Amino acid sequence: MDVVLNELSLDAQYATEMMFLTDLEEIVKITTLFEKLQEIVLLKNQNVWNSKITTTKTLQELLYIKGNPLLTKLRVNLLKLTSNPPYWEEDCRHQCEDNLYLYRGKDICDSGLAESVERDRNILSFTHNDFQDAKLTIQKNASDICITNFLDFKSTLLSLWETGAIDEEHFCKYYFHDTNLNFVLLNEARGFSQFGSVEKKQFIEQFKLFSKMRWDEIISSDGLEYKRYENSLSGYESENIYKFRVSQKFRCYGYRKEDVFFVVHLEVDHTLSDRG
């Protein structure tokens, strides 16, 4: 899948370098995700390195400042993710001679934003007042075309999952990282492979709810029915297994370590639940 870096979202909008660094953490999380997924190619403009971050500093000047791990990580990610091919100009898909590309009434020919129209219609933007929406409308001649705009880590993950670019196992692993849910132990046989798309969405919606709750709320919730599983679960006989309700039929099993619930099994029927 192609994602185009939106160089138009860098036009010296940051008053200070520190403001840019504050925003940079989210961009680095997104580019790191793209690197891990491997199926995503991040394309950039040949002149993006000369884009102004502040009125006095370009992207290239900032990225090559030594001693800042965020800057180093972004530089490495950009170089890795754009290696095949490095620049969209080498295989330019949009033709300005025959077409007019407008964004908010402005001609955007010869930009990554215009190029995204002719690719997979995904763009990665820095924080900018002109690019705050998750969906951007580009006018190509007389037609309006919707572009997905990746702005932050979690909305990027949601978009990738909703379009099928990432499966449920990877989505949960990354989306719920640093919450009270952990999916590193969930394997395919005990995971989402048992379910259809509707059921998968049910599980994920319940996981979103669970991840926002405090443990006293989880334990007292009538809807979740969080309780001890009074039987052993194969492979986890040494753990105190608990379960909670996803729907009338579906259950999620795992064990708690401190404030994190490690998910190990998703149940499609009451086969396990009826035993304890």
Structure, briefly:
With 276 residues, this protein is an alpha/beta fold.
Q: What do you see in this structure?
A:
The protein is of the alpha/beta class and about 280 residues long. It has two domains: about 1-155, no CATH class; about 165-275, RelE-like (YaeB-like fold). The chain has eight helices and twelve strands. The strands form two sheets. A seven-stranded mixed beta sheet has the order 2-1-5-7-6-3-4. Strand 3 (about 100-105) and strand 4 (about 105) form a beta hairpin. The longest helix has 21 residues, at about 15-35. It is elongated and about 70 Å long. About 30% of the residues are buried.
The radius of gyration is: 23 Å
Strand content: 15-25%
The tally of structural domains comes to 2
Oligomer state of the chains in this structure: single chain
Key terms:
alpha/beta, seven-stranded mixed beta sheet, 8 helices, YaeB-like fold, 2 domains
What's the SSE blueprint?
Layout: E1 2-5, H1 17-37, E2 41-43, H2 59-63, H3 69-81, E3 101-103, E4 106-107, H4 112-117, E5 122-124, E6 135-140, E7 143-150, H5 153-162, H6 168-175, E8 181-182, H7 197-211, H8 215-220, E9 227-228, E10 242-245, E11 251-257, E12 260-267
Parallel strand pairs: 1-2, 1-5, 5-7, 8-12
Antiparallel strand pairs: 3-4, 3-6, 6-7, 9-10, 10-11, 11-12
Helix pairs in contact: 1-3, 5-6
